[in-house]
């Protein structure tokens, strides 16, 4: 009887000790039931749209999803046109997205995380054979950090498309004399389909950061903002995307 009692006491002590060592893992377990929507816009190669499966994938999608999942959230990715995304961010139906500061469609709708998610190059590409014309292909709803306004003031006519790929295509088939785009999507398009405009020149360039943005109307707004502030205090990399890349073993 004494032996049995001793074994039971030992087992209870072992379970208690194990529970003490497991306590830190419970911090994120609470959030596992919390599903958030990460809304993204087609932006290859960071965000590539699979039209057959009606989903988006890419380095940007995977990095953001992995980061949020590591914080304990179940991430649902929605691939949306810009105008629709901005609307859903405003209503809180999309909890988080990735965009640049200064996007007027997101004014007063989001909280931007302090550390950049990644860095982008904004370029204006001109068809040399149409250098005297003033027509430009662009994405509907994008003001390109004031570049749209500056070009309108300079007399340019905008032909707005739903996605970066559609805007690039419009320029490549010769419908406009210029294109405002980010360098990543443009290079990806050319690699996939080739260039049809024989001579082009980059007439403007701006290197800008893009950020993870949390909807002000998300039901998890405060917790997401707090969790990300805690996380960013421990990050030494220049961007969140770099942090995910160099911390893959931890974040998997």
Report on this structure.
The protein has 252 residues and is an alpha/beta fold. The chain folds into 2 domains: 31-118 and 209-251, D-Maltodextrin-Binding Protein, domain 2 (3-Layer(aba) Sandwich); 120-207, D-Maltodextrin-Binding Protein, domain 2 (3-Layer(aba) Sandwich), CATH 3.40.190.10. The protein contains 10 helices and 11 strands. Strands 1, 4, 5, 6, 7, 8, 9, 10 and 11 form a 9-stranded mixed sheet that branches. Strands 2-3 form a two-stranded antiparallel sheet. Strand 8, helix 5 (147-153) and strand 9 form a beta-alpha-beta unit. Helix 3 crosses helix 9 (240-246). The longest helix is centred in the N-terminal third of the chain and has 21 residues, at 2-22.
Which short descriptors sum up this protein?
252 residues; alpha/beta; D-Maltodextrin-Binding Protein, domain 2; nine-stranded mixed sheet; two-stranded antiparallel ribbon; 10 helices; 11 strands; 26% strand
Total beta-strand segments: 11
Which word captures the global form?
A: elongated
- Specify the biggest β-sheet: 9 strands, mixed
Quaternary structure of the protein: single chain
> What would CATH call the architecture of the largest domain?
3-Layer(aba) Sandwich
Mean of residue pLDDT?
86
- Structural class of the helix and strand makeup? alpha/beta
Approximate helicity band? 25-40%
Ends apart, CA distance between termini: 48 Å
The CATH C-level name of the largest domain is Alpha Beta
> Might you state the CATH topology name of the largest domain?
D-Maltodextrin-Binding Protein, domain 2
What is the H/E order?
Answer: HHEEEHEHEEEEHEHEHEHHH
Poorly predicted regions are: 1-31
> At the fourth CATH level, what is the homologous superfamily of the largest domain?
Periplasmic binding protein-like II
């Amino acid at each position: 009887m004494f032996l049995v009692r001793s074994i039971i006491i030992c087992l209870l002590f072992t379970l208690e000790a194990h529970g003490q060592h497991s306590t830190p893992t419970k911090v994120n377990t609470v959030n596992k039931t919390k599903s958030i929507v990460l809304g993204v816009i087609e932006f290859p190669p960071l965000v590539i749209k699979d039209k057959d499966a009606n989903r988006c994938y890419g380095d940007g999608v995977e990095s953001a999803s992995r980061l949020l999942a590591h914080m304990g959230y179940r991430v649902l990715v929605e691939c949306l046109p810009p105008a629709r995304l901005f609307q859903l961010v405003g209503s809180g139906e999309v909890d988080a997205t990735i965009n640049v500061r200064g996007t007027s469609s997101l004014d007063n709708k989001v909280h931007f995380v302090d550390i950049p998610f990644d860095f982008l190059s904004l370029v204006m590409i001109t068809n040399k054979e149409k250098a005297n014309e003033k027509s430009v292909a662009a994405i509907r709803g994008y003001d390109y950090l004031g570049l749209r306004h500056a070009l309108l003031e300079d007399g340019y006519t905008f032909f707005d498309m739903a996605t970066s790929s559609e805007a690039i295509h419009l320029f490549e088939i010769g419908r406009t004399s210029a294109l405002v785009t980010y360098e990543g999507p443009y290079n990806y398009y050319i690699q996939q389909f080739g260039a049809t405009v024989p001579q082009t020149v980059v007439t403007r360039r701006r290197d800008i950061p893009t950020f993870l943005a949390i909807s002000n109307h998300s039901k998890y707004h405060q917790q997401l903002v707090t969790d990300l502030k805690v996380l960013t205090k421990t990050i030494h990399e220049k961007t969140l995307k770099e942090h995910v890349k160099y911390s893959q073993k931890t974040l998997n």
